[in-house]
Design a protein that fits this description.
alpha+beta; Arc Repressor Mutant, subunit A; Alpha-Beta Plaits; 3 domains; four-stranded antiparallel sheet; 8 helices
C-alpha cells in the first residue's frame, strides 16, 4: 500500500497549496450534500463524511456553516454529479468527479484538459473497473498492531492496515467508513491525517521522467477546473 500512500500525500500537498480553491470546492460539496438530505450530519451520512474530509483539510468553520445555512435556506443552485474517465501517457488512467450546473461546459473543459496534455477521454466504465471504491483513514501516534487490535475489539472488518512514514493507514469497504471512525473515536482519536472515500487503483504504473511531467501537467489542468471535485489516478508518484 506504500505507493497508494505516496499518492494520497501528494494529493493532500497539492490541495494544501491551493487552499482558497479547495475551500470553494468543499463549500460546494457541503452545500450539495446538505441539500440532498437533512442539513444535519447526525442524520445525513453523506454530509457527515464530507465534513470529516473537510476537517482534515482545515476548512474554516465559517465556510462550512455558510454552505449548510445556504442549503437550509433552500438555495436555488442545482448541481449534477458527473464522473469522467480517461487516459494519460503510457497506460495511465484517470477518474474525474465533478459537480456542475452546466454539463456541456464541464464536459468540454475536462475533455480539453485531457486533450491538450497528451491524454484523451474514455467512455463510461473504461477506467473505473480498475479502481476500488475504498474508505481510508490515517492517524499518527499508534502502531499498526495497536490499530488492528482496536478494530478487532470493535468488530470492524477492514481490508488492510499498514504503517508508512509514521502514519497508520486503515483501508476498508466504504460501508464501514463510520464503523472505523467510531472505533477510533471510542479511544479518543478524532484527528485524522486522512479520512476519505476514495478510488484506489488496483495496479499502479510508473512513468519515465518526460511522461511523468506531462501527466502531472494534465492532472494540474484538470484539478484547476472549477467544477472538478476529485481526481484519482493509477500513477506511482514516488517519494
Amino acid at each position: 500500500m506504500g505507493r497508494k500512500w505516496n499518492n494520497i500525500k501528494e494529493k493532500k500537498a497539492s490541495k494544501d497549496a491551493n487552499t482558497s480553491r479547495i475551500y470553494a470546492k468543499f463549500g460546494r460539496e457541503i452545500y450539495v450534500a446538505a441539500k440532498q438530505g437533512e442539513p444535519d450530519p447526525e442524520s445525513n451520512q453523506a454530509l457527515k463524511i464530507v465534513l470529516e474530509r473537510a476537517k482534515t483539510y482545515s476548512v474554516p468553520k465559517t465556510i462550512i456553516e455558510r454552505a449548510i445555512e445556504k442549503a437550509k435556506g433552500g438555495g436555488e443552485e442545482s448541481y449534477d454529479e458527473l464522473r469522467y474517465e480517461g487516459f494519460g501517457p503510457n497506460g495511465s488512467m484517470v477518474i474525474v468527479d465533478a459537480l456542475t450546473n452546466n454539463v456541456n461546459r464541464t464536459a468540454s473543459e475536462v475533455r480539453a484538459a485531457f486533450g491538450k496534455n497528451g491524454g484523451n477521454m474514455g467512455v463510461s466504465g473504461s477506467v473505473a473497473y480498475m479502481f476500488d471504491h475504498t474508505a481510508v483513514f490515517g492517524i499518527e501516534g499508534k502502531s499498526a498492531d495497536d490499530v488492528l487490535e482496536l478494530m478487532m475489539e470493535h468488530d470492524v472488518d477492514v481490508n488492510d492496515i499498514s504503517e508508512e512514514d509514521g502514519h497508520v493507514l486503515v483501508y476498508a469497504d466504504p460501508t464501514a467508513f463510520h464503523e472505523v471512525q467510531e472505533a477510533f473515536k471510542s479511544e479518543g482519536i478524532t484527528d485524522f491525517t486522512v479520512a476519505e472515500l476514495t478510488m484506489l487503483a488496483q495496479n499502479d504504473v510508473e512513468l519515465d521522467e518526460a511522461s511523468a511531467e506531462q501527466f502531472e501537467k494534465m492532472i494540474d489542468a484538470i484539478e484547476d477546473l472549477e467544477d472538478v471535485q476529485q481526481v484519482y489516478h493509477n500513477v506511482d508518484l514516488g517519494e
